[in-house]
Amino acid sequence: MNITLLLAAAFLLQQVHPVTEIERIVKRGMGQGAFPGVVVVVGTVDTILLARGYGHLTWSAESPTPSPDSTLYDLASLTKVVATTPALMRLADRGALRLDAPVQRYLKDFHGEGKEAVTVRHLLAHTSGLRAFLPLHTMTDNAQAARARVMEEPLRRTPGALAEYSDLNAILMGWVIEAVTGLPLDTAIAREVTQPLGMTETRYRLPRSLHERAAPINRWRGHPIRGVVHDQNAERLNGVSGHAGIYSTGRDLARYAMMYLGQGRVGPTAYVSDTTVQAFIARGRGNRALGWEMNDTTTTDNTGTLLTPRAFGHGGYTGTSMWIDPGTNVFVIILTNRVFAPKTSRSIRQLKEVRADVADAAVRLKERTCRLVNPALAGC
To answer: 280-294 burial, b if ≥16 CB within 10 A, otherwise e?
Structure first.
């Protein structure tokens, strides 16, 4: 058989066996030393097509295999779109919050030159004019001092002029949620997000009883560290922040993704209106939507070649990601603990390649399911 026929046969095998292809892809990432294990969940608006764990929670072969149902991952910056964004979306949907209202309406201590022009929408779109990051964990000694430091941070540019991804935006959004609801952020997220969506495993500040279910993020004296938030600024804010700190499972995140593909509904339950969902996932400045990143079709980083320009998603530094594509009716969740003693200096680059290839395989899996298994599947 010539090389052309061999390549054609390999392509056909991938078309017919995308689940096997996904396993091959993630095993490649583990073999490269990028992460010791991974949970992959692929689905549509109402169906889980794949939910499986691969590898191990640590580099030891005696360590458990991650579970999409029970392994708790520190989502890091995925917190921004799994907790903060939907809470603001729901508050806006019922009229408790105005996206175009000045942030100062809700946060009186947000003061400084030009800040009267910064709106909640600017925070969501990362166009506030604030810098990307402040090392609050080294600049301050406690949560109160950290809040004061964020509030006094000057703008670097005119609000609305340019999109610059910023943790400070999300931290402020968390405080806006507290001001509007009158509740601590973790309680507000439970009321506005996790409880109504049935995300029973998703929470800030894991109790000691759940630490063994958490994917480890580091080592101390040879022992895995788990259940302690990885983001140091979130830790300075007592483990609860709008930018990081949430733990979740693959199955819980699948319920969340289904809500977007369902235009604000999960099954028969309405979470928000379809018009509100559309407003939040509309492309804005700098390839950003409200809270979300939009698919940059000029590169295959993270999203591959088969997700459409309508796809939106986000990632977390610890090795987590979620992409949702209304154009193909597919979501792809990849959860790793990349930060746990990677065996390569290129773990981020290699994880991006894994994400891209899995995204393409996920689209093929959905197409195969529609073609060969269940043509009546919603979204086919």
So the answer is: bbeebeebbbbbbbb
Q: Answer for the pair 184, 240: CB distance below 8 angstroms, yes or no.
A: yes
Structural domain of 226: 19-77+201-373
Q: For residue 12, what pLDDT is reported? A: 43
Output the six-digit token pair for 359: 């995204």
**Same domain, yes or no: 190 and 232:** no
Instruction: State the Cα–Cα distance between residues 49 and 43, nearest whole angstrom.
Output: 5
**380 domain-assigned:** no
- Copy the structure tokens of residue 377: 């599947």
Q: Which two tokens stand for residue 208?
A: 């000691």
Given a contact cutoff of 8 angstroms between Cβ atoms, the answer to whether 359 and 39 are in contact is no
Has residue 154 been placed in a domain? yes
Angle 277-283-286 (CA atoms, 0-180°, nearest 5)?
140
Indicate which CATH number applies to the domain containing 350: 3.40.710.10
Q: Is residue 378 part of a domain?
A: no
308 and 242 inside one domain: yes
pLDDT digits (tens, 9 = 90+) for 86-117: 999 999 999 999 999 999 999 999 999 999 99
pLDDT at 7: 45
Single out the residue in 194, 217, 251 at which a domain terminates.
194
Per-residue pLDDT tens over the stretch 336-353: 999 999 999 999 999 999
Measured between alpha carbons, how far is 150 from 144 in angstroms, rounded to an integer? Answer: 10
Predicted model pTM: 0.93
CA–CA dist 58, 61 (Å, integer):
8
Same domain, 53 and 183: no
For the chain, what is the domain count? 2
Residues 287-313 have pLDDT tens digits of 999 999 999 978 888 999 999 999 999
Residue 151 has pLDDT above 50, yes or no: yes
219 by DSSP, 3-state: which? strand
My answer on whether 292 and 177 are in the same domain is: no
Residue 112 CB neighbour total at 10 angstroms: 12
User: Which helix or strand (DSSP H or E) is residue 119 part of?
Assistant: none
Do 102 and 70 belong together in one domain?
no
Of 190, 197, 201, 189, the C-alpha closest to 69 is 201
